[in-house]
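Following the same procedure, backbone shapes were mapped to integers, as reproduced here:
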Amino acid sequence: MVELKNAGRLKGMNAKGVSGTIQDGDVIKMFLVIDDKGIIQDAKFKAFGCVVSIAVCDALCDIVRGKSIDIIHTIKESKIIDTLGELPDDKYYCPKLALEALSSAVKNWKKKQEKN
């Protein structure tokens, strides 16, 4: 059994991103705590859909924790797949959805910073 240590919401969350649609079968929400220097201090997720989306999100949270938001765009789908070992052929869209949710969260955080 896999332990999902990164599932749920975060106290002190200051960035949230969403990707996917219920019609497509998967919705991913990423919750981040980003400090004033743009470092992701913590990351959690909620995934509604297949178990692969859930596993991908859990892995992505571990990958981004402690990283600068400036390097987030360099994280590729292949990094998540390598972390997990492999994915079923019909589930290669899951890392893309997770990365879209992460990107959405960072964009939302940047918009908040610009207003302040």
Observations:
- The chain has a mean pLDDT of 92.
- The longest strand covers residues 26-34.
- Residues 15-109 form a domain with the Sufe protein. Chain: A fold (CATH 3.90.1010.10).
